[in-house]
Amino acid sequence: MKIQGIFYAPALTLLLPLAVWAQEPPNCLSCHGDKELKKDLGGGKNQSLFVEQKDYLQSVHGNLSCTSCHTGITANHPQDQPGKVDCGICHSQETEAYKKSIHAQVFAADPGAAPDCLRCHGTHQIQKSNTDKFKKAALDQCGQCHADYRRTYFDTYHGKVVDLGNLKNMPLCWDCHSAHEILPASDPLSNVSKERVLATCLYCHPDANVKFAQYNVHSDKFSVKNDPISFWTYLVMVLIVCFAFGLWVPHTILWFVRDWLENRKKRKGPGSNPPTETGGGA
Ligand code: HEC
Ligand code: HEC
Ligand code: HEC
Ligand code: HEC
Ligand code: HEC
Ligand code: HEC
Ligand code: HEC
Fold first, then answer.
1. Atom of ligand 4 at shortest distance to CA of 142?
2. Residue of the CA atom closest to atom 30 of ligand 1
3. pLDDT at residue 81 in the model
């Protein structure tokens, strides 16, 4: 018996991969590497099912197998459709934080209105979050839905420096609001609530006090309600500039016209011929 067992073992080991292969779904990219592979959504619409291998391999998940995310794939695929991917199986911390956010609440009611993981990170091309490329794309994402806050951010000190290309030291939206557990300022647990905003500033401004934290980082010079001082200063400056230019431009134009008319008169008038040596001076 023993001798027989030793004899069969290597043969079984050789057969094992074949057996596993028979249960595993076939190589995904043999079908999904085809640019033309589409799913018919009805009504003349379709969804591309193409996955670019190059992008996928360069993503943070490039060394994971497709089925580590698409866990629902069976040997019957594509007859059986996999369910939605759950990022939370590997990123529980971010997922738990996100679930508490205002974004998750709004998303549950209206998926188009607020972001989920995929809206901010993508699917098969997910990059490390500390790259400039990701940061710029994420800033754009926030800005698409919060246009006024984007504008006021880039209008004030932090945003202006970021605009000049310094993404390293300056706070981006999520350095103040957090990335996943975003809450309204009225919620005491929000990073920017009146209870916690000082701690948020202190992170980078070690000398900050309550007064410093009251500085309006989203100061809006177009809104008298948001920032009356900026609003009136801006308005008065614009009026002064308009007044100055309003006087200066017509004044300069009139001056040119007068100059031109006088020159023409001089050229045409009696004194316009150059004096001759004999008679002109007499
Ligand atoms: C034989 C070709 C083939 C292979 C191999 C294949 N798929 Fe598919 N897959 C399809 C087709 C066709 C559809 C669309 C089915 C439909 O129209 O409902 C599909 C649909 C899907 C969808 C669902 C798209 C959606 O939004 O409904 C996912 C996800 C998917 N495949 C992932 C995979 C993964 C992961 C693998 C490898 C483990 C794989 N597929 C292997 C052909 C294939
Ligand atoms: C990091 C997780 C992850 C990995 C790894 C992954 N996918 Fe996906 N994939 C997703 C998500 C998220 C979606 C969006 C739909 C959903 O939530 O199920 C998706 C959607 C798809 C779709 C539907 C079409 C589309 O682009 O929306 C196909 C087909 C697909 N994946 C195939 C693959 C194949 C093939 C691989 C391996 C080369 C792979 N996926 C690896 C997360 C992943
Ligand atoms: C099967 C486990 C698994 C799943 C599911 C998964 N990831 Fe990942 N994810 C990883 C691993 C492993 C890394 C690489 C960690 C590293 O390199 O430090 C990673 C890295 C990341 C990073 C970069 C982290 C950083 O340090 O900047 C992001 C962002 C990310 N994943 C988002 C997602 C999203 C969004 C989903 C859902 C669509 C998802 N992941 C699904 C395993 C997973
Ligand atoms: C509103 C946009 C947004 C949503 C929604 C979002 N993320 Fe993020 N995520 C970010 C930003 C921005 C960063 C970079 C944070 C930083 O650098 O401090 C990040 C960072 C990460 C990281 C890197 C590690 C870390 O925490 O810094 C992982 C992993 C991640 N997100 C996964 C997820 C998962 C999983 C979901 C869904 C549950 C999700 N994210 C939803 C914007 C988002
Ligand atoms: C797809 C659109 C969308 C994207 C992308 C998005 N948000 Fe939101 N955000 C919302 C919606 C919707 C609300 C709910 C309150 C509202 O209607 O303004 C919200 C609420 C907020 C709030 C609380 C304010 C309030 O009025 O309740 C903050 C702060 C916030 N988001 C910051 C961010 C930041 C930072 C990013 C980028 C990392 C981001 N958002 C990306 C749609 C979005
Ligand atoms: C330096 C920290 C800081 C940065 C950076 C920052 N914010 Fe804010 N944000 C705040 C503070 C503090 C408040 C609350 C006071 C206020 O409304 O001005 C706020 C308020 C908000 C609100 C309204 C919250 C509410 O509940 O009414 C939204 C939305 C918002 N910010 C989005 C953004 C977006 C988008 C970005 C990036 C373009 C950004 N913020 C960058 C500190 C910051
Ligand atoms: C991620 C880091 C970071 C966070 C968080 C942050 N700042 Fe800043 N801030 C900077 C840097 C860097 C400068 C450049 C000048 C400096 O070094 O003091 C700056 C400059 C400023 C300036 C103009 C110059 C000055 O020092 O007077 C003001 C005002 C300011 N921040 C207010 C705030 C307020 C209010 C908060 C909290 C709501 C805040 N900042 C949160 C990094 C940050």
1. 1
2. 82
3. 85
Q: What was the pLDDT predicted at 1?
A: 40
Q: Is the peptide bond before 78 cis (omega within 30 degrees of 0)?
A: yes
Radius of gyration of the chain (CA): 35
Atom from ligand 3 closest to the CA of residue 129: 27
Q: How far lies 175's CA from each of 147, 158, 180, 202, 224, in Å?
A: 18, 11, 11, 12, 27
The number of the ligand nearest the C-alpha atom of 64 reads 2
Protein residue with its CA nearest to atom 20 in ligand 4? 129
Q: How far apart are CA 248 and CA 272, in angstroms?
A: 32
- List, for residues 163-206, the tens digit of each pLDDT value: 998 888 899 999 999 999 999 999 999 999 999 999 999 999 99
Between 262 and 20, residue with greater pLDDT: 262
User: What pLDDT digit, counting tens, does each position of 61-104 carry?
Assistant: 999 999 999 998 988 899 888 889 999 999 999 999 999 999 99
Q: Which residue out of 123, 126, 130, 133 has the highest number of ligand 3 atoms within 8 Å of its CB and is therefore the one to mutate?
A: 126
The reply to whether ligand 5 has any atom less than 6 angstroms from the CB of 138 is yes
Distance 14 CA to ligand 6 centre (A): 61
What is the domain partition of the chain in residue ranges?
Answer: 21-84, 101-219, 231-264
Q: What is the pLDDT of residue 17?
A: 40
Q: What is the DSSP string of 177-234?
A: H-SSS---TTSTTSTTSTTTHHHHHHTT-TT--HHHHTS-TT--TT-TTT-HHHHHHH
